[in-house]
Q: What sequence folds into this?
């Protein structure tokens, strides 16, 4: 069985709570409120990047690559310079009261035997005193888009993670089960 | 302000407007281009020159879209007016051949077109 776990580090996310979310950055929106491949944000003056890029892996036997989302520290200037003069920076300067994490889990079976087990983080929602900011990975397994949203009750706008089911409907050899894990730190 | 559309188009195109021309140049059946690869959704188009074929296919299917370079410089992403997003990479992680990925997740009207990844290979 092939096992992949691309969930964001829970300890890293837990370390954010109570700190100040300074700002986030993405390329200027063109037609959609999404960024291709990267967004950045700064917490207590330490900057992080969410990257959504293709990686080599055996994706349910369909292809040898898929887009994988990762969260890691990255110098702010390196993030901003990716978009040259088209970076859009939003100041927040609010205390992170809590973070909601949405993870999706996919298990596929062939002849009733599990052959793949795949976890990924679909979205994280930062909760502030009077609003939220969310960063969401596209529900398409080969999309590099990261959706940026700001407002209230953003959890209800997160895609349900079931778009992948459509890719299994034509397969007579494989079935899939999906489950979603939602927790708030 | 100042938006330009791929291929010199005068306006923003929907993906459905490009399907007829692409389908006249490449195999198209039941919403999929090319032949099935390792799954029905991962397609293969064979040619003597995969690099040129992949570029030609992308230029046709993404005509009239809003094109941006990927931040890592390894390809392009084009957004169509219906919400379809098309990516083109001269080399993929799967192999060293080009790839065009068609994402209809947010499309309001993609016609008969299905979501698919297309590899361009020699053959």
A:
């Amino acid at each position: 069985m092939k096992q992949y776990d691309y969930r964001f580090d829970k300890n890293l996310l837990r370390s954010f709570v109570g700190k100040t979310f300074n700002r986030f950055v993405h390329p200027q929106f063109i037609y959609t409120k999404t960024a291709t491949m990267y967004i950045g944000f700064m917490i207590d003056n330490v900057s992080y990047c969410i990257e959504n890029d293709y990686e080599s892996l055996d994706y349910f036997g369909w292809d040898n690559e898929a887009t994988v989302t990762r969260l890691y520290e990255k110098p702010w200037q390196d993030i901003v310079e990716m978009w040259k003069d088209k970076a859009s920076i939003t100041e927040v300067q609010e205390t992170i009261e809590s973070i909601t994490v949405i993870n999706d889990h996919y298990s596929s079976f062939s002849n009733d035997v599990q052959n793949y087990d795949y976890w990924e983080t679909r979205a994280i929602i930062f909760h502030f005193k009077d609003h939220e900011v969310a960063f969401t990975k596209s529900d398409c397994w080969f999309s590099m888009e990261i959706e940026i949203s700001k407002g209230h009750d953003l959890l209800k706008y997160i895609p349900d993670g079931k778009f992948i089911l459509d890719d299994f409907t034509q397969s007579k050899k494989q079935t899939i089960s999906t489950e979603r894990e939602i927790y708030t730190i | 302000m100042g938006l330009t559309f791929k291929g010199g188009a005068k306006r923003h195109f929907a993906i459905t407007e490009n399907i007829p021309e692409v389908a006249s140049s490449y195999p198209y059946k039941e919403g999929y281009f090319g032949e099935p690869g390792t799954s029905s959704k991962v397609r293969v188009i064979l040619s003597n020159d995969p690099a040129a074929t992949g570029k030609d296919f992308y230029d046709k299917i993404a005509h009239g879209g809003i094109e941006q370079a990927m931040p890592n410089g390894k390809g392009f992403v084009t957004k169509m007016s219906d919400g379809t997003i098309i990516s083109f990479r001269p080399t993929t992680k799967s192999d060293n051949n080009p790839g065009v990925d068609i994402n209809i997740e947010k499309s309001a009207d993609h016609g008969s077109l299905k979501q698919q990844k297309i590899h361009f290979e020699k053959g």
Notes: The interface with chain B takes residues 27, 30-32, 36-38, 53-56, 60-65, 82-83, 138-140, 142-145, 159, 163, 166-167, 170-171 of chain A (CB under 8 Å). The two ends of chain A are 31 Å apart (CA to CA).
